[in-house]
Queue: 4 jobs
Job 1
Amino acid sequence: MYLVSACLAGINCRYDGQNTKVSFIEELVRSGEAIAVCPELLGGLAVPRDSCEIVEDGEGNAKVVSKAGKDLTKSFEDGAQKTLEIAKVIET
Ligand code: SF4
C-alpha cells in the first residue's frame, strides 16, 4: 500500500483549488493500491488558501509562512504528524 499526495491523485486540494493529477497515481488510488492524503488539509488549512514557503529566521530555525505573512508552522507540523500516523497504520 502506498501513501500518495492527494493533489497528484486528482483531488483539488492545492492552495489554489486545483490539482496536479498524474494518471498513474490516480489509478493507484482507484485500484486500492494507494491512499491519498493532503497533509495541509489534515493540518486544518482550507481550500483555497495562501501559498506558503519555508523561511529561516536567521537563527537557524525554519518556519512555514503564508504569502500574507502568517506563520502556519503549527498547521504544517500537525498535518505532517497526522500523515505519519496514517502511514504507520497502513504499514502494519
Ligand atoms: S500538502 Fe496537499 S496540496 Fe500540498 S502537495 Fe501535499 S497533497 Fe498536494
Job 2
Amino acid sequence: MGSITFHHVYKNYKGEERSAVNDFHLDIEEGEFLVLVGPSGCGKSTTLRMLAGLEEISKGDLYIDGKYVNYVSPKDRDIAMVFQNYALYPNLSVYENIALGLKLRKTAKHDIELRVNRVAKILEISHLLERKPNQLSGGQKQRVALGRAIAREPQVFLMDEPLSNLDAKLRAQTRAELIKLQAELKRTTVYVTHDQVEAMTMGTRIVVMKDGVIQQVAPPRELYDKPANRFVAGFIGSPQMNFLEGSIIREDGVYYFSGRRLKLAIPDRIASGLSRDSRSLRQVVMGVRAEHAGLMPDTGGEPLPGWHRGVVSMSEVTGADLYVYVELGEETVICRVQPDEDYARHAAVRISFKMDKAHFFDRETGVSLAAGGDEG
Ligand SMILES: Nc1ncnc2c1ncn2[C@@H]1O[C@H](COP(=O)(O)OP(=O)(O)O)[C@@H](O)[C@H]1O
Ligand SMILES: [Mg+2]
C-alpha cells in the first residue's frame, strides 16, 4: 500500500507562462523515503500539493495504489501532511491536537486513546500530553505536529520542509528521529527540502528539481558520484564541485583536457565514454570535487609532472576539514586538505587532480559526457 505514480504531470498556474511543474514523471514505491530537493521556486511544494490534492493538476495523471486520483479530494486520499508551520490548535492540549484528526474520522474513543499514547511514546512526548502548544519548545511542537500525522496511520506521509524552523542542533536530532521512525513504520514518505545535506542524509532516493523539471532521480551516493548534469553536480555536495572550462583534444591516441592553464591526461576508462560524442568535446567543463584535488607547497625548482602551479587566495576551516582556495589564472579551485596543514594567503602551491574521478560536462547543455567513479 502507498505506491504513487506521477504520469507526465504538469502544473500551470493561471497567468504564469512557464509551468511550475513540467512533465513530472515518476514511480514511487511502497514504503519508500523519497526526497524532493532543489532551489527555492523549483516546484517542490507544488508537486507535493498536487499529490495531497490541495492543488489541481493541469495535465497528466496521478495514481495512488494504482487508483486514478486526480479528482479525489484530500480527505479521501489516505495521506497526512506535515508543513513547516506546525499549525497546532493553541486552545487544545497536546493530546487533543494529536487526537483531533481521529475524532473527525469518528474513531472510537478507546482506539483514539491507544493510538495517541502509542504515538506519544514513539515521539517521546508522553509527558507533554496535558500541555498547551504555547508551553512547548519549537522542537516539541514539531513533534506534536508529526504525532498528529502519524496517529492517523495514513498510507502516505507528505512533509514540506518540516524542520526548517528548528535550530541546527534540533534539526539534526529530529532528522535522525524521522529516519528511524520511517524505517519502523515503513510508510511511503515524500519529503521536500531545499537543503541538499538534509536530502542526502534522509532519502533512499532523491529527486533533484530545477525550474519545474526533474534533473535526476537517484540514491544519494549515485547523485554524488554520477551527477547527470552540471546543475546536479554543483547543487549536491559541499563545497561545490570545482568547474574548469576547456576542450578535449587527442594526441597520439591519448585524450587530454586542455584548459586555460592546464593540460591533463584523461584516463582511458573515462575517455572511452567520451569518444562516442566527439562534436561536443570542443567546449567542455571539467568537474573535480575538492577531495579529488591534491595540494603541496611550491618550493620552487623544476616542474613536476601532474602538478600545476597556483597561488592560495584564502582558506576555510570547517572543523574536520580545511578548504584551500587556489587561483589558477582566472579560475579558482577549492582543495580539501588535512586541518593541520598550513597554507597562508598568497602562498605558492602545486595542485594536482585525481583524473580518474573527474567529470566532463557539455558546456552548452550541461549534460554529463563522462565521469570517473568507483566502479569500473
Ligand atoms: N499559487 C500560485 N500562483 C502562481 N504561481 C505560484 C503559486 N504557487 C507557486 N507559484 C510559482 O510556482 C513556482 C514553484 O513554486 P513552489 O512549488 O512553491 O516551489 P518550491 O516549493 O520548490 O520553492 C514558483 O515560480 C512560484 O512562484
Ligand atoms: Mg516550497
Job 3
Amino acid sequence: MTETASKSSSRLVEWMRPRRRLIGWTALLSVVAVVLVVVLARWLRGTPGGEAFIADYPGIVPPPEGTPVGIPAWLGWQHFLNSFFLLLIVRTGFQLRSKQRPPGFFTRDNTRWPRTKRAPRRLGIFLWFHLWLDAFWILNGAVYVVVLFATGQWLRIVPTDWAVVPNALSAALQYASLDWPTENSWVVYNSLQQLAYFAIVFIASPLALLTGLRLSSVWPPEGALVRAFPEKLARAVHYPVMLFFLGFVFVHVVLVFTTGALVKLNQMYLARDADDWLGFIVFALSVVVMAVAWVLAKPPLLKRIAAKGGTVRG
Ligand code: HEM
Ligand code: HEM
C-alpha cells in the first residue's frame, strides 16, 4: 500500500470507530429493508392485479419506428472518456470537499492569452485540476449530445411515450422481486434503464455544470446573476449531484455485471453483439488506463503541468 493510501484508510478507520453502533444498526436495518421489499414485490407480482399489470406493461416500450439498432463505436469511445474524466473529477471533488490545504497554488499568467479584465484568482492545485477535467468532460458530453441527435441514437435514451412511466414501475417491481425483466440493450433499453440514462445525461450533468459554473470564477462577482442564483444554493446542490452520480454508477455497473456481462461489454466497448471475452479484455484494458491516470495525476506532476500556464507556489 502506498503511504497516502494507508493514510486515507487509517482516516477511514478513525472515522468509523466512534460510529460503530450507528454503522451496525444501519447495516442491519438495510438488510431488513431489502428483505421486506423483496417479499412485498414477490407478493404483489403473485396477486391477479400484479400479474395483469406486468402483462399489460412488460417493462419495455417498443422503440419508435426508425430507432437505430446497436451501440456504435463513437458511443463506446465517449462512454469510456466519460468514465475516465468522471473518475478524476470525483476524486478532486472529494479533495476539495475535505478542505485540506492543497499542496500547491496556481495563478494564471494574465499577460498571455486568454487575457481577462478581472485579475486571475489564485486556485488550489486540486481546484485547478477539477476545472480542467470539467472542461474536457463537458467537451466530450457536448459532442455526445450533438452526435446523439444527429444519428437518431437519442431515441434510445429519451422517452417519447408516457407509457415509460408504468413500464418503469413494472421493471422496478420485477427487479425488486429478483425475477429481473428481460432486456436486449442492443435493440432497446428497458424503461427504468431509459429513465436512468435520460436523468444522468439530461438532468444531473447540466446541474453539475450549472452549479459548478456558479462556484467558479467565471460567474460574475456581482449583479443580477448573483442575486438570481445564490452561491449557497449552488454549493448545496453541487455535492448531492455528485452523490447521485456515484449512486447511479454503482447500480449501473452492478447491473451490467449481473445481466450478461460479456455480451454487454462487447456491446459498449467493441460495438458488437457477441458473447466472447474480447469486450471484457478491452474493458479490463480501459480500467488499466484509468488506474495509470489515477497514479500519475498526483500533485508533483499536476504542478509541473500547471506551471506551463502561470505560476505555481506552495
Ligand atoms: C466503467 C464502468 C462502466 C461500465 C462497465 C459501463 C457499461 C455500460 C454498458 C454495457 C452500457 C450499454 C447499455 C446497457 O447494457 O445497459 C452502458 C450504457 C450507458 N452508460 Fe455505462 N458503464 C460504466 C460507467 C458509466 C458511467 C461512469 C456513466 C455516467 C455517469 C455511464 C453512463 C451510461 C449511459 C448514459 C449509458 C447509455 C448510453 C446510450 O445508449 O446513449 N456509464 N454502460
Ligand atoms: C461540469 C462542470 C463543473 C464545474 C465547472 C465544477 C466546478 C467546481 C468548483 C468551482 C468547485 C469549488 C467550489 C468551492 O469554491 O469550494 C467544485 C467543487 C466540487 N465539485 Fe465540481 N464542478 C463541475 C463538475 C463536477 C462534477 C461532475 C462532480 C462530481 C460528479 C463535481 C464534484 C465536486 C465536489 C464534490 C466539490 C466539493 C464541493 C464541496 O466542498 O462541498 N463537480 N466544483
Job 4
Amino acid sequence: MAVLKGSVTPGEKGISPILVENLWKSFGKQTVLKGLSFEVRTGETFVVIGGSGQGKSVLLKHVMRLMKADRGEVYVQGNPIMSLEQRELYDLRRKMGMVFQESALFDSMTVLDNVAFALRMHTSLSEKEIVMEAREKLAMVGLRDVEKKFPSEISGGMKKRVGIARAIALAPEILLYDEPTTGLDPVLSSAIDELILKMQSDLSVTSIVITHDMKSAMKIANRVLFLFQGEIRFLGSPQDLVESDDPVLSQFVKGETQGPIGTL
Ligand SMILES: Nc1ncnc2c1ncn2[C@@H]1O[C@H](COP(=O)(O)OP(=O)(O)OP(=O)(O)O)[C@@H](O)[C@H]1O
Ligand SMILES: [Mg+2]
C-alpha cells in the first residue's frame, strides 16, 4: 500500500478511508471545486449536501477517479487515487461501491445479471452461489420478482434500488451514494435510509452520501458537509447544521426561496 505523503497525516486509528486534499476541478472557464480538503473517518456516514449544480456529483466521481482532478489528490485507504496505475486502481475500486445518480444500469442485462455482474467478474463463486448472492442483495433493497426484467421494464425507484444492490454486491468497505433516495416515495426513502444505517452497523462500511433530502441527512449522517460555490461552507454534526446561524445554510436547510442563495 502506498504511504501518505505531503501534509497528510494518518489519524490516531490509522489511515483514513477517504482523505481529500486541495481538490480543484474546472470545466472550461467554470471552476466547480475550489481546493476542497476534508477527511472521512472510518465507519462514518458522511453526508454531502448543497444546491443543484454545486459540484456534489463531480466530487464523488473524483473519489473513484471517474474524473481526474486538475490539482489535488484523493487518498483512498492511504492510496493516492489520482496517481495509481490502472492495476492498482482496479484493485482499490473492488473495495468500493458506487450508487450513481442516474442508476447507470446495464440496459442489455436483466436486473439479476446487473447485480451478479461484479460477482462474476471478481469472485470464484459458482453460478449457483452467484445467483443466491445476487438474490440476497436484491432482497436487502426490497426487490423481489423483478430479477428477470430489464432496466427499461422497471420504475425509476426500482432502478435506484437495483443500483444499490449492485453497489453492495462485493461487500465493499467504502460506499458512495449519489442521491440514493431521490425519486423514491417516502416509505421507500426511509427503507433506503435504514439500509444505509444497516450497511454501516452490520458491515462497518464507510460511506459518503449525497442527498437533497434533509430528513434523510439528519437520520443517517454522522457528519455533514455543505458545498457552496465550490467551497466547504459547513462541516460538522447534523445538530450543529440545524443550529447554524449562517443565512446561506439556514435558507438551504429550510428550503426557503428568499435569502442569500437566490432562486432561478
Ligand atoms: N463532464 C462534465 N463536463 C462539463 N461540465 C460538467 C461535467 N460534469 C459536471 N459539470 C458541471 O459541473 C457543475 C457541477 O455538476 P454536478 O453534477 O457535480 O452538480 P450536483 O451538485 O451534483 O447537482 P445536482 O444536485 O443537480 O445533481 C455543473 O455546472 C455541471 O454542469
Ligand atoms: Mg448530482
